[in-house]
Specification:
5 helices; mainly alpha; single chain; two-stranded antiparallel sheet
Amino acid sequence: MYDAKQADMWSAGVVLYVMLYGGVPFEVGNDRNIPEVKQLDQLLQQMDAEDYELNPSVFASLECLDLVKRLLKPVTADRIKRDEVLLHPWFQKKLPPPIVRDETGPAPARAPAPDRRAPAPDWPPEISDGAPDHRPPITRWPPIRWPPICMQEPPGHATPSP
């Protein structure tokens, strides 16, 4: 039986995968000699077998990878539910305070937000030599230069006239 909410959870897993890896978890080649029905069958087989790669060179916490795996379960009954996602350790990291529902009034009130200017204690990860990064956090972006340096003519270079 089709469960739209669980289908949405699977879609959220695909979106999270794309955000992490920059590509979709399941895909088949673009060979025009293979009929579309056969390509779709191959795609469904990949999804059924949970045949996707979690590239170890991409920085992602174990909690995040666990959530991706649990969202991409092909069997709906095995897939993590929305309420479980909200309680998942990766989802709980550095979330804003929950909306506090006031039963006497129609408008929800938000709990006070934490100070977002302070850098997260575990991000960025330490530099590979083990020394922590002591640079101050960026508080404002530098001014934008136009045209960017890569588009500027080198000094002494004359543009030929038409």
